[in-house]
TrEMBL record:
It comes from Streptomyces roseus. ATP binds at residues 183-190. Keywords: ATP-binding, Membrane, Nucleotide-binding, Transmembrane, Transmembrane helix. GO terms for molecular function: ATP binding; DNA binding. The keyword rRNA-binding does not apply. Residues 157-364 form the FtsK domain. The keyword Nucleotidyltransferase does not apply. The lineage of its organism: Bacteria, Bacillati, Actinomycetota, Actinomycetes, Kitasatosporales. The chain crosses the membrane at residues 26-42. InterPro entries: FtsK/SpoIIIE/SftA, FtsK_dom, P-loop_NTPase. This is Plasmid transfer protein. Pfam families: FtsK_SpoIIIE. PANTHER family: DNA TRANSLOCASE FTSK, SPORULATION PROTEIN RELATED.
Length: 446
């Protein structure tokens, strides 16, 4: 019996150490979260003081202490409103003191991380006077495991990667209609795009692809694609057809506006999302892999084609949002050296993701006009961590993300399972991928 009391704790410690080394996620939920919670609460005051996140007592408290002959009150730490454990860390919600702001906590995030012995700390103001510290217990980006996806919704918002604070990064087409994804070769752009396609496959959306690497990335996923182009000539025609489709969607919106205008109190729609469901055209996500291939021109004829392509892309990016057409452009570089119109197009691509880049100029193509820190972070991405990227967030800040390593086989399986959802768009019919008869007859069901 006595031996059991010696062996049992040793066994528990051994299990904890093994889990911590090989299964940090399991370690966190079994042992880590409790240890970290106790540590954070026990050290809270001293850490806040050491990190310079306390405020001196107010004058009236000092005066009161003097009047009542008590010792001078201590400086005060932000008040803990809530501490919440998560799958990957802890979330500490703080009521900050007057004179403090969220930036003080962001600036101290490295010191907080060391002091609380956690992997990462990020600070975000969630409402006036309230800051949330998201603390990650372990390196969640080492081996990305996404939580099980919820049921597909009609909203174009798909989980695509994990953020370094353990939260899921969503690509939300309604709030960020168009996006640019840059990165050096082998940095993980195609896997990012693959995750996007797999995330979009269960949604009500028409996927349109341009993959000038002869279709090697997107063609295997063709069963879920409404249209595909695998060379610049077809891409130019496909984009022209997409512009035509956009014009037709605008006519539908205008017609509905005329009807609503005659009805008192009826809402007047300005985009497809306000149209009644039975009238709403299918939204479209256009994925372009290796955009530089579209911009190359070796002779006059190719120059004309290039200008057509860029003009169509600029038009789609400027007018597409209301028609539910979204652009997802991916390439190794995306700067003015690609020719006329590229900087105009880039200005419309408000969503920015930068995988590992080889030089500052490439990082500037994604974040130069947004954040110099993000530029630095993109250059510093480790070569041994493909799939890691820096992504701009809705508040104008940025964060590190990493996609799960979805294989082409897994993505193909998802696309095949949802092949029956592939909508047809008459304008894009000439570009419909050639599929085996089995799928065209609609017999592949999930
Ligand atoms: N999230 C990830 N986790 C682990 N490995 C990854 C991840 N993303 C990509 N990789 C690995 O990195 C390699 C390169 O990825 P990918 O093909 O997506 O790069 P790329 O940027 O598209 O390259 P290129 O521009 O040459 O096509 C892949 O073979 C894959 O094994």
């Amino acid at each position: 019996m006595d031996a059991l009391w010696v062996v049992l704790p040793l066994l528990i410690i051994a299990v904890a150490l093994v889990l911590r080394r090989y299964r940090p996620g399991w370690y966190w939920v079994t042992f880590g979260v409790t240890c970290a919670g106790v540590r954070v609460l026990a050290r809270y005051r001293s850490v806040m003081e050491a990190c310079g996140l306390t405020v001196p007592p107010s004058r009236w408290r000092l005066a009161l202490a003097r009047l009542t002959d008590r010792p001078a009150p201590e400086s005060r730490s932000p008040r803990i409103l809530r501490i919440r454990p998560t799958r990957t860390g802890l979330v500490l919600r703080l009521k900050i003191r007057s004179g403090q702001d969220a930036f003080d906590f962001s600036a101290a995030s490295d010191r907080l991380r060391h002091s609380f012995v956690l992997h990462a700390v990020t600070a975000q103001e969630i409402r006036s006077g309230v800051v949330e510290l998201r603390m990650t217990g372990y390196d969640v980006l080492r081996d990305v495991r996404m939580p099980a996806p919820g049921p597909a919704s009609g909203v174009l918002r798909v989980p695509v990667a994990l953020r370094e604070d353990g939260a899921v990064h969503h690509r939300d087409y309604r709030s960020v209609p168009h996006a640019l994804n840059v990165g050096a070769t082998k940095s993980g752009k195609s896997v990012y795009q693959r995750n996007l396609v797999a995330g979009l496959a269960p949604c009500v959306v028409a996927l349109v692809g341009i993959d000038c690497k002869k279709g090697v990335e997107l063609a295997p996923l063709a069963k879920r694609f409404t249209a595909l182009a695998d060379n610049p000539d077809t891409a130019a025609d496909l984009l022209a057809a997409l512009v035509q489709y956009m014009d037709r969607v605008y006519q539908v919106i205008r017609a509905e506006q005329r009807v609503s205008a005659d009805l008192p109190d009826a809402e007047i729609t300005a985009d497809i999302w306000d149209l009644p469901e039975h009238l709403r055209p299918t939204p479209v996500v256009l994925l372009v892999d290796e955009v530089a291939e579209l911009a190359l021109a070796a002779n006059k004829k190719e120059e004309v084609r290039r200008d057509q392509i860029v003009t169509h892309l600029v038009r789609l990016s400027q007018l597409g949002r209301a028609a539910g057409i979204h652009l997802e452009i991916c390439g190794q570089r995306f700067g003015s050296e690609l020719g006329k119109g590229i900087t105009m197009l880039r200005a419309q691509l408000t969503g920015r993701t930068a995988h590992r880049v080889n030089d500052e100029t490439s990082a500037n193509m994604a974040f130069g006009d947004i954040s110099s820190e993000a530029v630095l972070a993109a250059i510093q991405i480790d070569k041994d961590r493909p799939g890691t990227a820096v992504v701009g967030d809705s508040s104008g800040g940025w964060t590190r993300i990493r996609t799960p390593h979805t294989t082409l086989r897994q993505a193909v399986d998802v696309c095949n399972a949802h092949a029956y959802r592939t909508p047809q768009i008459p304008e894009l019919d000439p570009f419909r991928p050639v599929l085996p008869a089995r799928v065209l007859s609609g017999t592949v069901l999930p």
